Amino acid sequence: MNDAFKALSDPTRRRILELLSDRDMTAGEIAEYFDISKPSISHHLNTLKSAGLILDERKGQNIIYSLNMTVFQDLMKWFFDFSKRGN
């Protein structure tokens, strides 16, 4: 879970997640929304993938990225359980 929190700390990665919440996308499609290099986008995607926040699937020549909702559910459970401790 620490990797997920670290990945979420970066605004570019949070924006990528927001984009993927609308639809699955290729790295090229994601890159169109940013004014940074494609290698930088790849680095962010690798960080998100390593944290388990996104999944990738090869379709022909393309790799399609999508959200991994299981990890988000685990994070939400952690937040919910943590917030109950204060009550």
What descriptive keywords fit this protein?
3 strands; Arc Repressor Mutant, subunit A; 87 residues; three-stranded antiparallel sheet
Structural overview:
The protein has helices spanning 2-8, 11-22, 27-31, 38-50, 69-85; strands spanning 25-26, 54-59, 62-67. It has 87 residues and is of the alpha+beta class. The chain has a single domain (2-85), classed as Winged helix-like DNA-binding domain superfamily/Winged helix DNA-binding domain (Arc Repressor Mutant, subunit A, Orthogonal Bundle), CATH 1.10.10.10. A three-stranded antiparallel beta sheet has the order 1-3-2. Strand 2 (54-59) and strand 3 (62-67) form a beta hairpin. Helix 1 (2-8) runs antiparallel to helix 4. The model has no long low-confidence stretch (mean pLDDT 93).
Please summarize the sheet with the most strands. 3 strands, antiparallel
Q: What count of helical segments does DSSP give?
A: 5
Number of domains: 1
CATH topology: Arc Repressor Mutant, subunit A
CATH superfamily: Winged helix-like DNA-binding domain superfamily/Winged helix DNA-binding domain
The chain-level mean pLDDT equals 93
Strand order of the largest sheet: 1-3-2
The computed structural class is: alpha+beta
Percent strand? 15-25%
How many β strands by DSSP? 3
- Give the overall form: elongated
CATH class: Mainly Alpha
This entry's quaternary arrangement is single chain
SSE succession = HHEHHEEH
Q: What is the terminal-to-terminal distance?
A: 24 Å
